[in-house]
Amino acid sequence: MNSHSAPRPVVILDFGSQLTQNIARRVREMGIYSEILPFTTPIAQIRDKKPLAIILSGGPSSVFEQDAPSVNLELFKLDIPVLGICYGMQLMAKVLGGKVVPAEVREYGVTGFHREKNTSSIWTVFPDSDPVLMSHGDSILHLPSGFVGAGHTKTTPYAAMENPKEKLFGVQFHPEVTQTRNGIKFIQNFLQNVAGVTPNWSLTGYIDRKIEEIRSVVKQDHLICALSGGIDSTVTALLCHRAVGPQFTAVYVDNGLMREGETQSIVKDLQSLKLPLIVSHSSELFIKRLSGVKDPERKRKIIGRTFIHVFQKEAKQLGMPKYLAQGTLYPDVIESVSSNGSSSVIKSHHNVGGLPKRMPFSLVEPLRELFKDEVRIIGKELGLPDHFVHRQPFPGPGLAIRILGSITNDRIRMVREADRIVREELDGTDTGKSLWQYFAVLLPVHSVGVMGDQRTYENAIAVRTVTSVDGMTADIGEIPHSLMLRISHRIISEVRGINRVVHDISPKPPSTIEWE
Ligand code: XMP
Which CATH architecture has domain 10-194? Predict the structure, then answer.
């Protein structure tokens, strides 16, 4: 084994549950490396990874559906301990010859779990009637041979099952969520005491391993990275720089669509970390190409394409390096197993994603195995200041998608000034800290107002304040009324061209966080 090869993982087979990533995160927090694979992964490929244990996730399907996700019987004969969760348990029961039926009473919510007597010690983490989260419509009627029931709830006779000899276990509840009070301890128990896994995964180890890996790939060649100022590309750049020093260059494209003072602040932070950085001042080009464009998708595409153009020009001047580093994260890599087919494109996100297909680079993606919060921890270890690590998400197309309608220098000025005021009022406050994002949006409407004794006919700003865990859904962030009044008063009196402020109170879904 090479010194930089990936550690042996706990493999989580994904059957489409929203909670699959939770399982992977919880396992990593135990200091155990985990990887998610789609349930369709061939057995040989799973075996080649030499998994220490396999966890079958839950999923939205019923084992009775036609084409319901399934696994090959061989999976249970690899002599690798398996834990099935919810759908994963039902599937294990069915594939091994048990009988699953639609439940007489569907069970959703937290309920008491009663473990059976004379079961193995793995279950002792659950005191009698311990709370567990149930969410299922089918139930196991007959266990497969070799199994015994390990616990029940009021309505589910087989809420857990085991075949300790074969090291096969199943739980109908979800141990990976906090509502199941001792669920994490249970998973830990399974991994350490049944599968014999020693916790030895750490992010410091990850940094060292990746640095070595980048060195051995890049050798004497040159490596380049498109740096957006976001945490992912910045941490990627810092890792690459640590690995190959002067053979690395980061390129930051100033598209003229950043928030006030942001480009200067990013450049200052990165220069203080001695990162070799080229800043391409290209705002005029971007704004010229966006001139007169109102359609949101066209804006995004033009920005993406112009970015490629500018980046390519800079790369040529650097002698066309052989390698390109990208901040791809694990959630981008995990193959979706949505049972409804791939979800439709709502917005063309992540403009940098389009780069490699059209450019002659080999890719280096040192964060491919990491979740966002792990990237933040690594960023801190590599010396990024706190304010950088905890910067709010900011979309690649920048202010362009917060200016509804045409983009002009004057309209950029209005949204930028309003955005600065929103930030000045919320940054560092408890309210601000409770929010996922807060920003200003310039609307494509004029309305009548009165200033002094003069009639005005000017623009409106919407203030957006949202709470969220991962940006996939969002709720409206509540702002004290007095604070909202101050924000409104300041925007109207300080930003020339604005005579009206509204507060956007739409959750996602059905709205999205950004307006375009
Ligand atoms: P939406 O508007 O889809 O946004 O609800 C969800 C989260 O993603 C951010 N966002 C982007 N991030 N490139 C990015 O890197 C993009 O093109 C982009 N568009 C939206 C948005 O700010 C929110 O946090």
Answer: 3-Layer(aba) Sandwich (3.40)
52-86: burial string, b at 16+ Cβ within 10 Å, e else = bbbbbbbbebebeeeebbebeeebbeeebbbbbbb
Cα 151 to Cα 102, 114, 156, 190, 191, distances in angstroms:
19, 5, 9, 16, 19
Instruction: Give the pLDDT score at 448.
Output: 98
Q: Is 296 in the pocket of ligand 1 (CB under 6 A)?
A: no
Domain residue ranges in the chain:
10-194, 203-389, 408-504
Contact 172, 159 (CB under 8 A): yes
Token pair in block for residue 125: 């983490």
Per CATH, 10-194 and 408-504 having the same topology is answered: no
Helices (H), 427-500: 430-433, 481-494
pLDDT band with cut points at 50, 70 and 90 for residue 336: low
Residue 66 confidence (pLDDT): 86
Catalytic (active site) residue 489: no
Query: Which listed residue (162, 176, 417, 516) is catalytic?
Result: 176
Q: Considering 35, 136, 162, 174, which one is annotated as catalytic?
A: 174
Instruction: Look at the domain 408-504 and name its fold.
Output: GMP Synthetase; Chain A, domain 3 (3.30.300)
How large is the average pLDDT for residues 446-456? 94
State yes or no: is 174 an active-site residue: yes
Alpha carbons 381 and 321: distance in angstroms, whole number: 28
- Distance from C-alpha of 71 to C-alpha of 408, rounded to nearest angstrom: 56
The CB density around residue 435, as the number of other CB atoms within 10 Å, is: 20
Cis ω for the linkage preceding 510 (within 30 of 0): yes
- pLDDT tier, 358 (very low <50, low <70, confident <90, very high otherwise): low
Which residue, judged by its Cα, is nearest atom 3 of ligand 1?
A: 512
What average pLDDT score do residues 262-288 get? 95
| Residue 124, token pair as written in the block | 């002792």
Name which residue sits closest to atom 11 of ligand 1, judged by CA. Answer: 395
Residue 356 pLDDT level (bands cut at 50, 70, 90): low
Q: Is 183 in the pocket of ligand 1 (CB under 6 A)?
A: no
Phi, psi of 466 (to 5 degrees): -130, 150
pLDDT for 47-97, tens place per residue?
999 999 999 999 988 998 888 999 999 999 999 999 999 999 999 999 999
Strands 148-152 and 130-142: unpaired
Sign of the Cα pseudo-torsion (308, 314, 318, 319, in order): positive
Q: What is the pLDDT of residue 18?
A: 83
| pLDDT surpassing 50 at residue 353 | no
- The domain 203-389 belongs to what CATH superfamily? HUPs (3.40.50.620)
